[in-house]
Automatic annotation (TrEMBL):
It comes from marine metagenome. This is TrmE-type G domain-containing protein. Residues 121-446 form the MnmE helical domain. InterPro entries: G_TrmE (IPR031168), GTP-bd (IPR006073), GTP-bd_TrmE_N (IPR018948), GTPase_MnmE (IPR004520), MnmE_dom2 (IPR027368), MnmE_helical (IPR025867), P-loop_NTPase (IPR027417), Small_GTP-bd (IPR005225). Transmembrane segments: none annotated.
Amino acid sequence: MNTTIASLATPEGVGGLAVIRISGPDAYFVAQNLCGKEKIKPRYALYTPLCSPVGLEIDSGVLTFFQAPHSYTGEDVVELSCHGGVVVSTELLEACYSFGCVSAQPGEFTRRAFLNGKMDLCQAEAVADVIMSESSAGKEASYKILSGKFSTLILKLKQSLFVLVSTLEGELDFTEDEITPTPTKEKRALVLNVLSQTKDVLSTYSTGKMLQHGALIALVGKPNVGKSSLLNAILSEERTIVSETPGTTRDAVEVPFLINNFPVRLVDTAGIRRSDDAVEDLGMGFTRQYIENADLVLKVIDLSLPRDAVEKEIKSFNCSKPVIYVLNKSDLLNNGSKKAWGSNGPGVVTTSALRGDGVDDLKETIYNKLVSHSSLSGGLVLTTSRHKLSLDSVASSLERALFIIDSNDSPEILSVELRDAVSHLDEILGLTSVDDILDNIFSKFCIGK
């Protein structure tokens, strides 16, 4: 990290302001050359002309110097706030490069912050997640990790295990006549407590993954049951073609949407039926793939069919994924038929896509089906697959440790499993990460962060 990097920290293009970030050992020298001043007060917003290497004034803007280690990266950092647009920012960056800067790589500022101890690895990952959030709920989950709450939990679990490992290995140097070994009950309780907390965090991953990528919801059913109309009703806009002709929807239509601020991806799929049409048959193949990958399936059924036919279709639908049965076209029922259906029971919602009846109830049912309220009621939500894999390994090591304790096996073997669990906790914080892992993580960042 001997180089000094510079990059645009705001989106390219026309805008009111642009921010250029500079970090590295020569950042102060670059700032002096840009503004023509010998001394620049740290953490002070200086309004000044910003000049090229030949002394031509490029723009007037605000220059702020953050002296190491009190900066985002832990190095000397300079931030330039200038007028927006392509020309001004380009000319200022070219001036920075002339004064010795090199162009920053994606995520390089945050990578330097991690390597300089300003944040741990899971916090560094959360920086990108906060920036890329598509919902307030997703941002909130990522920000809790960025703020250090997840790191605090990991350190707490690590400390509990480390104390036990230290005790066990200390006892190996003495005989039972010289010291009193840690009781089996005490060892078991400690390991079980860490394992329970680990599994509690792991249980939030399904919710966290959906917050990051959007829950995939597949609308499936026979042709002409109103899947496209229902999708339009949920979105409150016409996004898919509606026709009485069976087989109109031949290719899946995926639409991002927020339900109670929870990100979802609604997919209108081709109707499932026997067909000699090769294109329609291909569309039904996509439908089956979407069902297989879905987080939730909306099985749409024509409620105007005879009651026994509707009940048979509900009972005959085999799906391993969570399902909500949507009984559509309630507008075609007379009042007597509506009363006959009465309460549909859990997991069944009656709607009229044409009139919009029951659509709000359907949205609420979707939200409740997808979201674990314990995950979103102030607790941590696991959002990253890397963290999940490490915690899975922690849980496996601890389960083996419990077996060793119950089997009254040697303390040496128990210590090995506990150290393995500690090592996987260190992976999450980046204490044992290798360069290729770091390259993969920071390559996903935007330039300037």
